[in-house]
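Design a sequence for this backbone.
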C-alpha cells in the first residue's frame, strides 16, 4: 500500500515557518504582510475558498483585506480596485478570485496587477521569469507540489515525470519547475493532455505523475508503474447518496486502485489543497520582505 502524503501536516510546518517570519519582520519595525483578496459575485466555492484564505492570514499574523463586489461590477470598476491595491503600501499581495463573470476579461485583470504584488504568480512577467529561470512568484499549487516532493524526500533528479494537464495555473508551471535545475527539479518531463495518444502507456513509464486534468478518477491503477509517486491536483464532485450534501469530493486519480500500486500518493481532500494556501502565504511574506528592502528566498 502507498504511503499517504499528508498535505495538511506539511502545510502546517510551512505556516509555522511563515508565522516565525512574520514575527521577525514586525520585530524589526516593518509592516506585517498584507493580502488583499478581491471577490466578485457569490460563487459558493469561491466564497468558501476566500474564507479559508482569510482565516489562514489571521493565523500567521497577516493583515488581510477582503473586498467583495457584486457580479454586476464593470471591468473598469474592477480595474480601478486593482489599481487602488497596487498603490496601497499596506498591501503586499493581490489575489483576484477566479472565475470572474463573463463580461470581465480575466487576463486583462491579471495583467493589471503589479507583478511585485502578484502572489498568485499568474502575471506574464512572473510566468516569463519562471520560463527563463529567474526569481519570481510561482503559482501556488505548483510551488506547493514541489514542496511536497522535497519535504517527503522524493527523489526527482533524473526521474520521468508525467504531467496530466496543460493549464497556465498548474500544468505548464509544474512542468517547468520539475524540469529546472536544482531543488525538486532535474526531471525529464512529459506533458500529456486531452489530445495525447496512448496516454495510458505514457503514464505507465512515469516515476512521478501530476494529475491535473479535471476528470474524476481518470488515472486508474493499471496506468501506474509500481512504486510511482502520485500527486493528485483534481477536485471533482461526484454524487454520493450517503453524504448529507449529496456529493463528495474525489480527485483525478482513482485513489482506491492507485493506493495499491503507487509508492506514495496524495489524498483528496487533504493533499495538494492545503499546500496551495500555504504557498500563497509564503509568496505574500516574500513580497512584504522585498518591500522592506530585506533579502528574499524566491528562486
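Sequence:
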Amino acid at each position: 500500500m502507498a504511503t499517504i502524503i499528508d498535505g495538511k501536516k506539511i502545510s502546517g510546518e510551512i505556516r509555522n515557518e511563515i508565522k516565525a517570519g512574520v514575527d521577525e519582520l514586525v520585530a524589526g519595525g516593518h509592516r506585517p504582510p498584507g493580502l488583499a483578496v478581491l471577490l466578485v459575485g457569490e460563487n459558493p466555492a469561491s466564497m468558501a475558498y476566500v474564507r479559508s484564505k482569510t482565516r489562514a492570514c489571521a493565523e500567521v499574523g497577516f493583515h488581510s483585506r477582503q473586498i467583495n463586489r457584486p457580479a454586476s461590477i464593470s471591468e473598469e470598476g474592477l480595474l480601478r480596485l486593482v489599481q487602488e491595491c497596487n498603490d496601497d503600501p499596506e498591501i503586499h499581495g493581490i489575489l483576484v478570485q477566479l472565475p470572474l463573470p463573463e463580461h470581465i476579461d480575466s487576463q486583462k485583470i491579471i495583467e493589471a496587477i503589479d507583478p511585485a504584488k502578484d502572489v498568485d504568480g499568474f502575471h506574464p512577467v512572473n510566468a516569463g521569469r519562471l520560463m527563463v529561470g529567474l526569481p519570481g512568484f510561482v503559482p501556488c499549487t505548483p510551488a506547493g507540489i514541489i514542496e511536497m516532493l522535497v519535504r517527503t524526500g522524493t527523489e526527482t533528479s533524473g526521474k520521468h515525470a508525467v504531467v496530466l494537464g496543460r493549464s497556465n495555473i498548474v500544468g505548464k508551471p509544474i512542468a517547468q519547475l520539475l524540469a529546472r535545475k536544482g531543488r525538486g527539479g532535474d526531471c525529464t518531463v512529459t506533458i500529456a493532455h486531452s489530445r495525447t495518444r496512448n496516454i495510458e502507456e505514457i503514464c505507465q513509464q512515469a516515476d512521478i505523475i501530476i494529475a491535473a486534468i479535471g476528470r474524476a478518477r481518470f488515472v486508474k491503477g493499471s496506468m501506474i508503474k509500481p512504486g510511482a509517486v502520485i500527486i493528485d491536483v483534481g477536485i471533482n464532485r461526484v454524487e454520493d447518496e450517503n453524504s448529507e450534501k449529496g456529493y463528495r469530493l474525489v480527485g483525478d486519480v482513482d485513489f482506491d486502485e492507485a493506493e495499491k500500486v503507487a509508492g506514495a500518493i496524495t489524498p483528496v481532500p487533504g493533499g495538494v489543497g492545503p499546500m496551495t494556501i500555504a504557498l500563497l502565504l509564503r509568496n505574500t511574506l516574500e513580497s512584504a520582505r522585498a518591500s522592506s528592502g530585506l533579502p528574499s528566498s524566491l528562486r
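The CA atoms of residues 29 and 292 lie 10 Å apart.
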